[in-house]
Amino acid sequence: MGNYRFHTPDGVIDILPQDASVKRKIETDIRELFSGYGYSEVETPGIEYYDVYSSGDYVSAEDMYKMTDADGRIIALRFDGTIPVARLSATLLKDEKPPLRLSYIENMYRFKKAGGGKLREFSQAGVELLGLQNSEADAEVIALGIQSVLTTGITDLQVSIGQVEFFKGLADEWGLSTEEELELSTAIDQKDIVRIEKTAERLGLSEDAKEILDMISNKFGTYDVLDAFENKVNNARSKAALKNLREILQVLEDYELIQYVSVDLGMLRSLDYYTGMIFKGFTYEIGFPILSGGRYDKVISNFGRDLEAVGFSIGINLCLTALRRQDKLPEFVEVDAIVGYKEGEGMRKAAFATAKELRAMGNKVIVDTEHRTEEELDAYAEEHGIDQVVFIEEEDEEEDS
Amino acid sequence: MITIALSKGRLAEKALDLLEAAGYDVSAGREESRKLILEDEKTGLRFIMAKPADVPTYVEYGAADLGVVGKDTLLEEGRNLYEVIDLGFGACRMCVCGPVSLKGKLDQIPNKRVASKYPNITRAYFEGTKKESVEIIKLNGSVELAPLIGLAEVIVDIVESGRTLKENGLDVLETVADISARVVVNRVSMKMKESEIVPMIDALRKQVAIKNAQKKEEK
Asked: What is the rounded distance in angstroms from the CA atom of residue A165 to the CA atom of residue A167?
């Protein structure tokens, strides 16, 4: 048997001072961003009843950390931010008039699923905009997503926007069964051209349909993509999806964020969860999306309230890793100044007063606790890379108290 | 710089041939050495030589942008990747095999023991496709031994010519999947390095189409 005294469990890590300070700064900046847009932060419990997550069939049992409570009921560690907020908005907040703008910054716990890269405990910040169903709301959430990434210091950002209704409309038009729809959408999502062609062949799709499938896999861009599809599809559902995307792009232009986005109608993950636009954000040096969001109008109805929902989450740990690999982590200084003092009446008090003044100017200051002489203090500062040394030899006469 | 993960061996050679035919200078990749990373600043290509089973992992994490790997490995590893081209070579089948006497009677054996190098493919096939619970016994090679010596009733393994099977009194009972070499792409690289990767995929697709057309003519 192993002795794990010195180890952390698989998928969880210690975060050391430099990373912890950057992480906190990112979280603080994002919190300010969210609140600046009128999103109120909520805290949901670290553990939920398993039923909260299993009710909608969106999360598989294998991916959750589960335990039983003292009464034998199954509980799960917080898996994501959206579902607890959905529960909250249909229970404690059920009398709040929509729209609701809520946000969270919490640690999530997942087996296997790649929400945090490959970490099993990771921090996510996110927003939920509830009770609105229009392109402005969709675009607001995308805009906040983009800005939250930029806030971290990452500048190279690519956001792909899709719309699951576009494909669902086609599946309707082509008369696909649920299984066939899933099969085809999975192939499209994996850009598996061979499987798309084979499936299309087997389902007996028309040449026009095959051409559309080919376009879905190969066309990326903005308005030009929408124009190209506009002339190809005939069903109302797909057309409405294209209109939604066009409006989103127009709103994002006014946000002056259009340069970060492109349309990818082949993003077709979790078709039973998403009901409209979906988006993912990518940057260099990290193999997983750092940003993920979309519209999921049916989630809250699992908790008995009909409330449309659109939201996103940003992976804070992933951003941190990306910043490190892109060499963009801000310089980290543990201590800016050290204050020492000569033995004698009132000296220590003067040292504390000086340290307080320095701190008020934003410095990180320690006061010597080992009675070093001035020379020893200089040597100590040199060794520890502390820029500023103050040695108090006489009482500060200007002091008021 | 585009990083391409190749499966050491025959598959790597064929992949390099195809890239060359598509107009890429792959001399770096052909360098005879024990180096694991073969990089060419001029061409902007970097090749890493990995164990086949590890190629999907390198690509999923983004350590490599692109990879060439057998469909068997992809099915077994179940990674989250774009699977963009079927290269056509390295073709074979993943099959359920067993004693010839079991032909057509596979479904009649209750509580089967299935030996395989591919436990995930085996589980997906029996539990997912056939809706049947089986005991899976993971082996690392010479899987054909298992039914002969009574370790398992049947095996799930790759079949190329079927000769080893025949010589041991075994035969293919069911086909699980057709296998061939695939090009996989990291989901982020596809977006962030679109201007380099998309043309490469297009060029490779063209070569594959030419090759397939030639094959048809030969037949």
From this structure: 5
Q: Is B104 exposed, middle or buried (0-12, 13-18, 19+ CB in 10 A)?
A: exposed
Whole-structure pTM value: 0.88
Length of chain A: 401
Q: What are the angstrom distances between the C-alpha of A205 and each of A185, A213, A334, B107?
A: 14, 10, 64, 34
Q: Which of A127, A149, A148 is nearest to A138 (CA)?
A: A127
Which residues of chain A neighbour B62 with C-beta distances below 8 Å? 285-288
Predicted confidence (pLDDT) at residue A86 exceeds the cutoff of 80: yes
CATH 3.30.930.10 domain position(s) in chain A = 17-325
- Chain B hits for A190, CB-CB cut-off 8 Å, are 81-83
State the CATH number of the domain containing residue B81: 3.40.190.10
Say if CB A160 and CB A146 are below 8 A apart. Answer: no
Q: pLDDT-based confidence at B122, cuts 50/70/90?
A: very high
User: Taking CB atoms and an 8 Å limit, are B192 and A284 in contact across chains?
Assistant: yes
pLDDT in tens, A250-276: 999 999 999 999 999 999 988 889 999
Please give the tally of structural domains in chain B: 2
Q: Shortest CB distance from B186 goes to which of A190, A283, A287?
A: A287
Residue of A nearest to B199 (CA): A218
Closest CA to A96 of A85, A110, A111, A107: A85
Same structural domain, B96 and B34: no
Q: Which residues of B touch A194 (CB under 8 A)?
A: 85-86
Contact B191 A191 (CB under 8 A): no
User: In sequence order, what E strands does B24-162 have?
Assistant: 37-40, 45-50, 66-70, 82-86, 92-99, 113-116, 135-138, 154-159
Contact A285 B61 (CB under 8 A): no
Chain B: give the shortest CA distance to residue A194, in Å.
7
Same-domain status, B54 and B81:
yes
Residues in chain B: 219
* CA dist., res. A244 & res. A208, Å (int): 23
Instruction: Give the nearest partner residue to B188 out of A190, A195, A287, using CB atoms.
Output: A287
Do B15 and B85 belong to one domain? yes
The CA distance from B48 to the nearest CA of chain A, in Å, is 17
Could you tell me how many CB contacts below 8 A there are between chain A and chain B?
A: 48
Which CATH code for domain A17-325? Answer: 3.30.930.10
Distance of CA A248 to the CA centre of its chain: 20
Looking at the fold, whether B83 and B107 belong to one and the same domain comes out as: no
Residues of the domain holding B204: 2-90+180-218
| List of E strands, A229-333 | 261-263, 277-282, 291-295, 309-315
The pLDDT tens digits of the residues spanning B151-175 come to 999 999 999 988 889 999 999 999 9
